[in-house]
Design a protein that fits this description.
The protein is an alpha/beta fold. The protein has a 13-stranded parallel β-sheet. α8 packs parallel to α10, α9 crosses α11 and α15 packs across α16.
């Protein structure tokens, strides 16, 4: 077997499959995969094919035969595990993989799985006719390998291929992941494809980008049982917030990973909806309150919170009032979470959310203005791992001292420093001396450090 070529990206856009169209009735290459690659302990006869004096072929069994000696070791079957072979195939370039697939039927089937298990991206330059022809050569066998489809902005089905693509997307038995960019625009221009996708009951992970009324209608028709959903609504869809909560509630018995943006799904008036199985939540909303979150997602383990760009900045008094209300609700009512694996987001949102529970990992982007608030978040959550990000123009190393001393339980520290676009020169030696003096006074036993810069600003 040839050595693997350089590693390829896992998100390979399938453009054209060239010579891979192979009839299902074609005869496999000689020698089965098992006989060539399966481990074998049988003793191999070390023989040659020397000719006898009368010209007839015979097997030589003489101990001194040079040809018998030269053949020793070359007839032993290769002990290569099938799972290892699949890993090696995953690192091959497409051209090399197509060549390898021609050697045997077993390798051919494994190669088909490798090609179709990677994301198939339908974009402007996607050769849909070639893809449809490739799938129809061995339709039932190849269709079961189709698992991940991403529809990019500006995709238009070629003439004569729409019906075939609709059949593929509706019948694929293992199509589990689907992403649609510019969701409303695509669904409005391709109603047949929208109906075909909505009729597939096997989709488990769905991402709708720039969704609006058409996206909500699509969720209403969907027959699948989602375990992971990311719905990013456009700001014009403000009147559709209650409908959004209603449509998402149909998946509350299966949904485990949820990402929502601009949805208003966390508004107090619709907090009666519950998602008891969701363990990972990412929200980008204008108004996020902990009582609503804890009520709707009681089994939450990972939380990421951001305030989206359309939100009007809240005053310090408003943030303090929200924080005070959240802490009082947790203490007096005894509600909220008892433990989280990860807490991440912008510092203002985390500070206003004010969770009072043990958190394994806390992550935030620091500035000189919010570092005091982040220290308060660390005091409330007692993290064992800290991930800190800051730009040298907005925060200094010495200011990290307040955060590190506010987290007496942490033992692992990750610091990412951005010095790109630095307005003044940075003394690298002084920087690391300051960092050593700050970190050296903490109980940390694991430190990960990353520094990005332009060479012109470092001395």
């Amino acid at each position: 077997m040839m050595s693997p070529a350089r590693a390829a990206s896992s998100d390979v856009k399938v453009q054209s499959f060239g010579n891979t169209q192979r009839s299902s009735n074609s005869t496999p290459a000689k020698g089965s995969f098992e006989s060539l690659y399966a481990p074998s302990t049988a003793r191999v006869r070390q023989t040659c094919t020397c000719k006898s004096s009368d010209g007839s072929s015979r097997h030589c069994t003489k101990e001194g035969c040079p040809r018998r000696r030269n053949l020793a070791g070359f007839r032993t079957p290769m002990a290569l595990n099938y799972d290892i072979l699949l890993v090696l195939m995953d690192h091959l370039e497409r051209k090399t993989l197509l060549s390898l697939m021609q050697t045997s039927r077993m390798l051919y089937d494994a190669g088909i799985h490798q090609i179709l298990s990677k994301p198939v991206t339908l974009g402007r330059r996607f050769k849909l006719r070639s893809f449809c022809s490739f799938m129809l050569v061995d339709y039932p066998s190849r269709l079961r390998h189709l698992r991940n489809v991403s529809i990019e902005k500006g995709f238009r089905p070629e003439c004569g291929c729409l019906d075939t693509l609709c059949t593929l997307l509706s019948d694929a038995p293992h199509l589990e992941t689907l992403e649609i960019a510019r969701c409303d625009q695509f669904l409005q221009c391709n109603p047949e494809l929208a109906d075909a996708i909505a009729s597939n009951p096997n989709i488990k992970s769905l991402r709708l980008d720039m969704a609006g009324d058409e996206g909500l209608a699509f969720l209403r028709r969907a027959r699948c049982s989602l375990t992971s959903a990311a719905v990013l609504l456009t700001p014009p869809c403000l009147t559709g917030f209650p409908d959004m909560a209603l449509e998402m509630s149909k998946f509350n018995s299966t949904l485990k990973d949820l990402s929502i943006q601009h949805s208003g799904i966390l508004a107090t008036k619709i907090s009666s909806y519950r998602y008891p199985l969701v363990t990972s939540l990412t929200v980008e909303e204008s108004d996020v309150r902990l009582p609503a979150l804890a009520h709707m997602f009681p089994a939450l383990r990972e939380l990421t919170v951001y305030s989206f760009a359309y939100n009007i900045a809240q005053s310090d008094e408003e943030v303090e009032a929200i924080r005070k209300e959240s802490k009082a609700w947790q203490v007096e009512a005894g509600m909220g979470w008892h433990h989280l694996d990860k807490l991440e987001g912008d510092v203002t949102s985390l500070y206003g959310l004010a969770p009072i529970c043990k958190v394994d990992l806390v992550s935030g982007m620091l500035t000189s203005r919010n570092i005091t608030r982040f220290a308060e978040v660390c005091r409330d959550t007692r993290p064992s791992t800290l991930k800190l990000y800051f730009h040298m123009d907005k925060c200094s190393v010495g200011e990290l001292k307040d955060v590190l001393h506010a987290s007496p339980d942490f033992r692992s520290l990750s610091i990412t420093v951005d010095a790109i676009g630095l307005t003044q020169d940075l003394d690298f030696t002084k920087f690391f001396n300051d960092l050593r003096s700050v970190v050296g006074t903490t109980p940390v036993n694991t430190l990960y450090f990353r520094f990005t810069w332009h060479s012109g600003r470092i001395r």
